[in-house]
Amino acid sequence: MRSAFLLLALLIGVHTFYIKEKQNSKNHQDITRIAILRATAKVCGSAEGFEKPNPLNTETLASSCQKDAFANNFDAGIKIISYYNQQTDTDHPFSAKHHFHSEAFLDGKLLIIKGLEDITTYMKNLNFEDARKTLGQILHTLQDFYSHSNWIEMGNTEPCTALINLEENIPNPADEKTQTCESDTTNTKSGAKIKDTILQDKILTSGYYGKSKKKGKCSHGGTLDFTTGFGRSWDGINKDGSDSSHGSLHNQAVDVAIAASVQLLEKIWKSNDEPTFYRLMGLDQDKPKGNKKTIFSFFNSKSNV
After folding, report:
1. How far apart are CA 175 and CA 172, in angstroms?
2. Taking the model in full, what pTM does it have?
3. Where is the signal peptide (predicted)?
């Protein structure tokens, strides 16, 4: 029964940037692929004579990086990282820290910071399989911040760098007593209404997801989010797709999630070196290994940016 519930949740994209393709929306795989291509182009750009290709895809970038022979490996590396990204929904569907639900900002940040530390350790030990797995997992969590919090509603167009830097404090998170969303609002087709004072004072919040929430807090929203109350699945703040509660902001959330993912990848590059970064991405003679056939059957396209 539980497995059937999880499958349904994943197929309809209940509480995260969608996994399956959905019209007019970008999913975690899209965001991850675009970010890896852009970050890798920056790494290659440090070499003299590099010209960023247009369109930007695994084949054109491998060629511009003078690594033509490794284009298929590069594509495989991205697919593996993306696979473990979407697996976060299967492995941790109701974990607040893995999705930045329920104002779990510090726990989510520490998950990302620990992941960054582990990736560097794995890379130094040439354990690229676990490094790719961990990278996919923390990219998912990072990307969800922009869809599940009110970062975009507050007018931010740049990433929250505190999520990947231990020394930075998360800016102005709501405490457990602060009411963040209006209650008993009518369905205006625009989702839950965040309190004006929350937006004016730049107080950070995120939607609650699951069985219940504290009075006055925002809900995530969606078919299987019971915190909204019966018949009020629209009453949330997520931006997972264009048809979500705050779907009008989906594209803005995607853009900032991509930029944040690029920043995280650049941090990994600068904490290591170019050859090991290329190898992590799969832009190397060693073909990335995946221990599940579904990694490659699930993703069957080479998209351009």
Report:
1. 9
2. 0.91
3. 1-16
